[in-house]
């Protein structure tokens, strides 16, 4: 598999930078045929090697079960080990995809997408979740905007396949983590690589300053391919073998995870509902913060109760951490005054939804946000919901 990286010099550059994606030739036996892929390189420490092996096993099962590549999940093309100065790095060769959905929201200046666009994206995610849950018995456990990638780039000129120009690398920022699907045009000259990287960073910085301006409306997204794939299965687990009690990124975390009452597929459905809301409004549904006398977990539960009503006794009493947050009456111990506002009213008053759009959207979302995980609909059931088939 050394053919994935072209020269010893560039090989060393890659190991130093720990770059997560690059341009390579996927047909080393037929060099006249080239294809863009993404390369995810893990750190060499033992714990990272173990995590990489787990992800490779998960991705292998996902790819094997989807030979026609129609389930809207990222595929593993190949994997190999690379010996660098600090040890061996596990490398995964993945499909080349576009930006994540967070970048789409940023591109749209943090404004909500049109409901037809939200529906299109939701269908892709639900097909992926139905495949993972029903066919593979896999729980993603970290579903969020950053872990869902568009089929291609938002701006066609930035797509090497559509534009015919080689992409350039920039280092992922701390906020983007290790999941950014940027690519490296492998050059024989390190100097040229650095020059191109600097130019890329400058262009991206300029773009950020423009799209994140205050008071501007959303962009026209017509013509953008909104098909997307669920990716990053590093934290995924089999239903029969849960890996950790604390899962999910904070803003997308389900209540049963907070109180530690056990989890299964419904945690992904809760996260999906949070994603759908964020796509439609441009803002996260829940953004908890710790305050004087209460924790981030408690604020998170309070925000849920303000929007969705009182948490049932089953959850306020039976979780391993329920007693840390709730009294015997099912009320929060340290946050007593809640500002209740229904989800439908929030959409109309804050996000200027029409009454009809808000009512229809809430009809789709609310069952997914049921505090009782057993009552949440499955991905398969969601795909049959009338809201997904509204044409206007």
UniProtKB/TrEMBL annotation:
Keyword Kinase: yes
Catalysed reactions, semicolon-separated: L-threonyl-[protein] + ATP = O-phospho-L-threonyl-[protein] + ADP + H(+); L-seryl-[protein] + ATP = O-phospho-L-seryl-[protein] + ADP + H(+)
TM spans (from-to): none
Domain Protein kinase: 1-388
EC number: 2.7.11.1
Highest taxon, organism lineage: Eukaryota
Pfam families reported in the protein's UniProt record: Pkinase
Classification via InterPro entries: Kinase-like_dom_sf (IPR011009), Prot_kinase_dom (IPR000719), Ser/Thr_kinase_AS (IPR008271), SRPK (IPR051334)
Enzyme class: transferase
A GO molecular-function descriptor: protein serine/threonine kinase activity
Keyword annotations of the record: ATP-binding, Kinase, Nucleotide-binding, Serine/threonine-protein kinase, Transferase
GO process annotations (BP): regulation of mRNA processing; spliceosomal complex assembly
Keyword Cytoplasm: no
Protein name as it appears in the record: non-specific serine/threonine protein kinase
UniProt gene name: LOC105175995
